[in-house]
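Reply to dn_fold:

You asked what the input looked like. This is it:
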Amino acid sequence: YSDHVSKGIYFLLQTMQFKPDGQGYWLTEVAHAQMYEHGMATLALCEALQMTGDTSLRGACEAAVKFIFAAQHTDGGWNYHPKGPGDLSIVGWQMLALKSASAAKIPVPYEVLRECDKFLESQVAQGFMYKYRKQAVSDSMTAIGNLIRLFRGWSTTDGAILRAQSHIAKAAPSVDDVYYNYYATQFMFHLGGPRWQNWNAVMRELLVNSQLKQGHMSGSWFFERNPFNRKGGRLYVTAMCCLTLEVYYRCLPVYENSSEEFRF
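and this is what came back:
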């Protein structure tokens, strides 16, 4: 798939815009998608840099990361648009991007991470569950919040982390919420153990059995009942399902990795 990957990377490089101060960004006219798209694009480019070692990508990665730094709100979070008040769903993508940038040896200022820690504290409930914009807690936000906590060095035996693991294990994989499944699978994977094994068995069977096997859309997924899936379409759903299945091929679980490459 190297040709497809190369074309995707080239597209990101060609569509990136730059500010006079060296910040690089991807922002569409769809206001509620802007920082989602920037976080995802930055994550993809930093992953490519880390995995290939292609130094020609470093400048673009550094520029994209600078934009994330500058877009952070004073509450420590990120929003649909730069400098907007924090939204944990969008914070998740920025932190994934910064985590990948750090692994690619791109410095991430401590102040940015400290402010994100502050934002997480403002969104926590019952010690381990997380909210969407200070609204009701949700399983998706709980998975995101606790995954970020692991990135920030929280122990896999921390009481709040274990309570979150138990909660998500009981919630089980969703039959149609691919966004939740992606973050929850990452979180469960990094903790390992019997709960991860049980989760993975259910998640794997769900995705393998629900993938289309014939016709011109063979290989894809689409769960129409979920409204966010309808907004993103079949390509979005397929990408999220692939990312979910790839978790253990791409990541070394935190319980096996005590190095700074995981925590930042």
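Residues 156-264 form one domain.
Hope that clears it up.
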